Request: fold
Amino acid sequence: MSDDAPFTDEQLAAMKHPPLAKRVRRTLGLSQDAFAERFGIPLRTLQEWEQGRREPDAATASYLRVIEREPDVVARVLAAE
Reply:
C-alpha cells in the first residue's frame, strides 16, 4: 500500500472526529472564553464537551449546528434580549 492510498471505510470509521462544540468554535475562530460568552454557554460546560467528558444533549447539539450555520444571527438574537 502506498502512502497516498485512500483510507478504507474501516480506517475512516476508526478516526476520531473533533467534538461538535470544538469543531464549531474552531470554525468561527473564537477562543473558548469568547465562544462561551457570545453564545451563552457556561465556559466549564464547553470545556467538558470539547474534552469529551460530556456530550451536549440533542437540543444543545441542534443549537450548536445553528451557531455553525448562522453565528451572526444567533449572536444578534441573543444580544437583543
The domain at 9-79 is CATH 1.10.260.40 (434 Repressor (Amino-terminal Domain)). The helical segments are 9-14, 20-28, 32-39, 43-50, 58-69, 71-79. The chain has one domain: 9-79. The chain is about 65% helix and 0% strand.
